[in-house]
Amino acid sequence: MYGVKGNQMGLYTLHIATSYRNDIIDLYREMTNVTQKYYQKFLNYAVDEGYYPLPNLINVPTTVDFVSDINYTKGYRLFSDKREINTIEFSYLNQSIQTNTVGMMLMTGFAQTAVHTDVKDYFIKGKELSKDILEGTYDILIKDDIRVPTIHGLSLTRSNIPPFSDKLMMYLTFLLSNFGLGSQGFGAGFSLRDDINIKLGLFVKDIMLFIRENIRMMIDNGWLEEPPRMSVNNLRE
C-alpha cells in the first residue's frame, strides 16, 4: 500500500503542474497532503512489523567529490573494473526490486482468479515479466557485491474465487504497469553507468509492449473508456 501511495503523490504533483483552475489545484494539493499522511503511516507500519526491509546502509561521506574521469560512465570495461554503483542508481534498482516483487505476486493472484482464458494468460505473462526484471536487477547488484534487499511476508492463498472483475484487474494492471514504466524510465535517466542505462532501457521496452497488449485486450473486450476528444466541437467559444 505504501508503494501505491508513493505513486499517487507523484501523480498528484504532475496533475497540479498541468492544471489551471484554482479549485482543481487546491483539490490536488489537499489530496497530496492526505496521501503523504497515509504513506507515512503505511510505511511506518510495514517497517515496524518487519514487512519492508530498509535499504542498504552506507557510510556518510565526509567530503564532496567531483567526477574527473570520463570512464565514470562506463559499465562495460574489458581491461579494468567498472566503478561501484552510486547511491542514486541503487535507490532506483532497490525500488524496482520492491515493486516487481509485489507485482509478481499480484499478477500470480490475478491469474489465479481471472475468468477469461486470454486474461489469465496475460496475467501469467505479467508475472514472467516481473520475474525477468527482478533477475536482471539482481544481476546488476550481485555483480557489484551488493546485498539484494527483499520483501518479507508475501504469500498467496489457493482461492480461485475472483474478488474483482477481469475488467477491473486489467485496468489496475494498466495503471501499475505505467507506474513501473515511469520508475524504470527515471532510473535509466538518472543512472550514470551505461550498462545500467541499457538494461533499464530494455525493461522500459518490455513494459511498454506489455501495456500495449493490455490496451488491445481492453479494446477487444469493450472495457476501455475513451477520453474526451480535442475536437473543435468540444472547445468553448
Give me the number of helical elements: 6
The first-to-last residue Cα distance is 44 Å
- The SS-based structural class is mainly alpha
The total beta strand count reads 0
Q: For the report, how would you describe the main beta sheet? A: none
- Share of β-strand residues: under 5%
Average residue-wise pLDDT:
87
Low-confidence stretches: none
What is the 3D shape?
globular
Helix content: 55-70%
Would you list the SSEs in sequence order as H and E? HHHHHH
* Rg, Cα atoms, Å: 21 Å
Description:
The protein is mainly α. The protein contains six helices and no strands. It is globular.
Provide a short characterization of the protein structure:
The protein has 6 helices and no strands.
Based on the model shown, name its key terms:
single chain, 237 residues, 6 helices, mainly alpha, 63% helix
List the SSEs and their pairings.
Blueprint: H1 2-17, H2 22-48, H3 87-113, H4 117-143, H5 166-190, H6 194-220
Helix pairs in contact: 1-2, 3-4, 3-5, 4-6, 5-6
